[in-house]
Amino acid sequence: MPELLADCKAETLTRLRRALRAWYSRHARPLPWRKTADPYVIWISEIMLQQTTVAAVVPYFDRFVKRFPTLESLASAAEKEVLRRWEGLGYYSRARNLHRAARILVRERGGRFPNDVAELLTLPGIGRYTAGAIASFAFDKQAPILEANTLRLYCRLLDFGGDPRSAAGQKLLWGFAGQIVPRRHPGTFNQSLMELGATVCTVDEPRCSVCPVRGYCAAFSRGRQTQIPIPLPRAPVTEVTEVAVAIQRDGRYLLIKRLPGERWAGLWDFVRFAWEQDGRISPIRLAGAVYERTGLKIAHQGAIAEIRHSVTRFRINLSCHWAQWMTGELDGRTRHFRWVAPSQFARFPLSTTGRKFARLLQERGAQ
Question: Taking a C-beta distance cutoff of 8 angstroms, is the pair 267, 92 a contact?
Fold first, then answer.
């Protein structure tokens, strides 16, 4: 009969911790942020890993840390460059918060990174999990963690069939996380929990036959591991049609900076808007839509491509066009804009679809 963890007996927890550490020493993936105790590097990795897979993060992490190797180098950089190095990871508020927090740490704390969870929580973009991860991984503080992988692991260990994201579920799981983390080497232990959740205690097909703690798992003992935790209801996918227009003037194209509160705030983009009209995108209707939004009169030159892209619960079909500028000027008091040569597109942070469009324009120019 498994030694279940509902009562968190000290001797049971000791054996579980020992089993986890032994397993982790043999099976931990050699991820780049695990090779250091530098809180800056660990912080960058943890922010990047939010809502993004490890496989996707590694190349972005390597490039970002190469360009901004220290807290001071990140703080002194322009936001445009930070967003450009972040480009493709999505959720750009994470990058803006990184930049803001770096400047706060340099300006107000002399470049000293806090080692206390409460202090870490005062920084932009750092929540309870990230604060615990930095405190334990970088400073070996006894701080609990709860993120997607450990949430799933804890639910199965406890056979918790309720909603783990509810207030009651969060209270139970954070309480368990606080009980299970040891005083000695808490950072390594927390890493082992996350690694086990990511590689063994997986979402759809948990590999219970090789799990080092299956003897302590209540869900496994009751054959409920594939039912725990209860899944989030899937949000319906919304189809969206958008139009992007590359307006050319003397060999340069118009780029406009997205405003705070807009999607992709801080990034640059071609003239883009939702297309809610029925029927095909005719040159006259397109020119009218551009004039209504910008005050620019254009001569439509043709469609270039259709780009499909999914983000959160939206499936976007982006119809890309190019046009010649005829008359009119943008108001620089209300929008930041630039007329940019294709060879200079790389200097500006763009959305994923914006970058694809920019490359198509560069390829056209090279032909």
Answer: yes
pLDDT tens figures, 219-254: 999 999 999 999 888 878 888 889 999 999 999 999
Give the span between the Cα atoms of 83 and 96, in whole angstroms: 7
Residue 46 annotated as catalytic:
yes
DSSP letters for 119-175: HHTTSTT--HHHHHHHHHHHH--------HHHHHHHHHHHT--S-TTSHHHHHHHHH
CATH 1.20.1270.10 fits 10-221, yes or no: no
Identified catalytic residue from 46, 87, 147, 195: 46
Determine the pLDDT at residue 345: 94
- The CA-CA-CA angle for residues 56, 94, 120, to 5°, reads 115
- Per DSSP, what are the bridge partners of residue 327? 297
The alpha carbons of the chain give a radius of gyration, in whole angstroms, of: 25
Q: Which two tokens stand for residue 11?
A: 């001797």
Domain positions in the chain: 10-221, 238-366
User: For 91-131, how does the pLDDT look when each residue is reduced to its tens digit (9 = 90+)?
Assistant: 899 999 999 999 999 999 999 999 999 999 999 999 999 99
Q: What CATH code would you report for 238-366?
A: 3.90.79.10
Cα dihedral angle (314, 99, 108, 141), rounded to 10 degrees? 70
Q: CB-side exposure of 15: number of CA atoms within 13 Å?
A: 13
pTM over the 0.70 mark: yes
Pairing of strands 268-269, 271-274: unpaired
- Provide the phi-psi class of 169: left if phi over 0, else alpha when psi is between -120 and 50, else beta: alpha
Angle at CA 102, nearest 5°, toward 100 and 107? 95
Tell me how far CA of residue 67 lies from CA of 73, 149, 336, in angstroms: 8, 30, 26
